[in-house]
Design a protein that fits this description.
This protein has 76 residues and is mainly alpha-helical. The protein is built from three helices and no strands. The longest helix is centred in the N-terminal third of the chain and has 39 residues. The radius of gyration is 22 Å and the shape is elongated. The termini are far apart.
Protein backbone atom coordinates (compact mmCIF):
# COMPACT_ATOMS: atom_id res chain seq x y z
CA UNK A 1 0.00 0.00 0.00
CA UNK A 2 1.45 3.38 -0.92
CA UNK A 3 2.61 5.70 1.81
CA UNK A 4 0.63 8.95 2.16
CA UNK A 5 2.60 11.97 3.29
CA UNK A 6 1.14 14.93 5.18
CA UNK A 7 1.80 17.18 2.17
CA UNK A 8 -0.39 14.95 0.00
CA UNK A 9 -3.19 15.05 2.58
CA UNK A 10 -3.02 18.86 2.71
CA UNK A 11 -3.22 19.07 -1.09
CA UNK A 12 -6.26 16.78 -1.15
CA UNK A 13 -7.98 18.85 1.58
CA UNK A 14 -7.33 22.11 -0.32
CA UNK A 15 -8.78 20.61 -3.51
CA UNK A 16 -11.83 19.35 -1.58
CA UNK A 17 -12.32 22.80 -0.03
CA UNK A 18 -12.18 24.47 -3.46
CA UNK A 19 -14.51 21.95 -5.10
CA UNK A 20 -17.09 21.56 -2.32
CA UNK A 21 -16.89 24.91 -0.60
CA UNK A 22 -16.72 25.70 3.11
CA UNK A 23 -20.43 25.02 3.72
CA UNK A 24 -20.68 21.54 2.21
CA UNK A 25 -17.29 20.19 3.34
CA UNK A 26 -18.38 19.44 6.96
CA UNK A 27 -21.56 17.80 5.69
CA UNK A 28 -19.55 15.56 3.39
CA UNK A 29 -17.19 14.61 6.22
CA UNK A 30 -20.12 13.77 8.49
CA UNK A 31 -21.81 11.60 5.87
CA UNK A 32 -18.52 9.87 5.04
CA UNK A 33 -17.93 9.08 8.72
CA UNK A 34 -21.47 7.77 9.12
CA UNK A 35 -21.05 5.56 6.06
CA UNK A 36 -17.78 4.13 7.33
CA UNK A 37 -19.35 3.39 10.75
CA UNK A 38 -22.32 1.65 9.14
CA UNK A 39 -20.02 -0.36 6.88
CA UNK A 40 -17.87 -1.48 9.82
CA UNK A 41 -20.89 -2.51 11.87
CA UNK A 42 -22.40 -4.46 8.98
CA UNK A 43 -19.13 -6.26 8.27
CA UNK A 44 -18.53 -7.14 11.91
CA UNK A 45 -22.18 -8.15 12.43
CA UNK A 46 -22.70 -5.81 15.38
CA UNK A 47 -26.05 -4.21 15.97
CA UNK A 48 -26.34 -0.50 16.56
CA UNK A 49 -25.51 -0.04 20.27
CA UNK A 50 -27.20 3.36 20.44
CA UNK A 51 -30.61 1.99 19.39
CA UNK A 52 -32.80 0.47 22.10
CA UNK A 53 -33.64 -3.19 21.65
CA UNK A 54 -37.17 -4.42 22.11
CA UNK A 55 -37.73 -7.73 23.79
CA UNK A 56 -39.57 -10.23 21.59
CA UNK A 57 -43.25 -10.41 22.40
CA UNK A 58 -43.25 -7.47 24.82
CA UNK A 59 -45.09 -5.12 22.46
CA UNK A 60 -47.71 -7.76 21.63
CA UNK A 61 -48.29 -8.65 25.31
CA UNK A 62 -48.65 -5.03 26.30
CA UNK A 63 -51.35 -4.50 23.69
CA UNK A 64 -49.24 -2.16 21.58
CA UNK A 65 -49.06 -2.39 17.80
CA UNK A 66 -46.11 -3.84 16.00
CA UNK A 67 -45.58 -0.96 13.57
CA UNK A 68 -44.57 2.59 14.50
CA UNK A 69 -47.90 3.91 13.18
CA UNK A 70 -49.86 1.46 15.32
CA UNK A 71 -47.78 2.33 18.40
CA UNK A 72 -48.50 6.02 17.79
CA UNK A 73 -52.22 5.29 17.61
CA UNK A 74 -52.59 6.24 13.95
CA UNK A 75 -55.35 4.42 12.13
CA UNK A 76 -54.58 3.30 8.59
Amino acid sequence: MPDVSPIQLIIVMIIALVVLGPKRLPEMGKSLGKGIREFKSSVSGDDHPDLPRALPGVAAEAGHGSTPAERAGVEA
